[in-house]
Amino acid sequence: MKKLYTFFLFLLVLNTNLFSQHTISGYVSLDNSEQWEKRVYLSKVSFEKNKGTYTSNTIAFSELTKDGFFAFDNHLFTTKDDIYKVHINPISLEEKKKLSDKVKNFKLLIASKKDTIHFKKSKIVFNDYTSNNTADREWQKLKKFQARYENLTSDFDPKQYLLETKGYVKDSLQILLVKLIGIKRLDDQDLLDKDIQTNPDYYIEFLEELKSSELDPITYTHLEHKLAFIIQQQTSQKYRISLWINGIAILVIILLVTILLSSKHKLKNKTQIPLSKQETIVKDLIVSGKSNKEIANELFVSLSTVKTHISNIYSKLNISNRKELLLKK
């Protein structure tokens, strides 16, 4: 009897060990199964914060049995929690395009090698499953809760939202999520663009808060793209305005310089010192073709006196020789 008991105990331990080797296992049921590959893929996921998207790297696949069973052993996983993706693919790209909008063929979840995650038979692919990973359960719970608020109504109560999320979301994340919900309401009412244009600094600072938080980048990708687009528009508009202002300023400067030079010239002409009676006589004699000596003889003055008169005439008339004087007459 003791030997029999030991044998059954051995079988029980063996069974338990075999089952525990599967970190992820379960069933896949599909309509039009001939359009799908007969295997389930496992990928490790990494989020790209800057782009607000994720990339997945396939690490294994499991062939489906006749009844749709698949399993991934724990050696494929690490001891710490990571995000994984289980997915099944259509047999062709053409089928993928047809089915992508109708069937969600993947599931994102958190797992480690010490966990046991099992997908139950369901009409919806990768829909109903059990998990002993606390982080994954809370994450799925949060995603379901957020889905309830995708289409917000006027009776949305932030306090109730905080109350319901208090158990599994940090206070700081709750605040950010409520702010995001408020921003979504603005966007639904076509008021977000205007508010970003009015308060760009607030939204830039808020986006930095989101990026440094533990929130899934997908939750704020739309805001990030919209903010970048509006800021680019504002920068382009400011640049165009700056070009116009600079152009107008240059034209104004040219106009002022022209006016200044014209005024200076007119002022110079107006303030010209008149010739004396004797200088006028000397000027007329020069214009008539007389030489300096002939002018001195005619006026009964010395030659040096004539030269002095001529020098004064040139200075007052702003000329430098007889030729210019003849032209000026």
TrEMBL record:
Give the Gene3D superfamilies listed for this entry: Winged helix-like DNA-binding domain superfamily/Winged helix DNA-binding domain
Could you say which residues form the signal peptide? 1-20
SMART domains under this entry? HTH_LUXR
A GO molecular-function annotation: DNA binding
The UniProt record lists the HTH luxR-type domain at 268-329
> Known CDD domains for this protein?
LuxR_C_like
**Tell me, what is an example of a GO biological process annotation in this record?**
regulation of DNA-templated transcription
Please give the start and end residues of each transmembrane region: 241-261
Q: Keywords assigned by UniProt?
A: DNA-binding, Membrane, Signal, Transcription, Transcription regulation, Transmembrane, Transmembrane helix
Stored InterPro entries = Sig_transdc_resp-reg_C-effctor, Tscrpt_reg_LuxR_C, WH-like_DNA-bd_sf
Report the Pfam families cross-referenced here.
Answer: GerE
Protein's recorded name: HTH luxR-type domain-containing protein
Q: Per the UniProt entry, what species is this protein from, by scientific name?
A: Aquimarina aggregata
What does UniProt list as this organism's lineage? Bacteria, Pseudomonadati, Bacteroidota, Flavobacteriia, Flavobacteriales
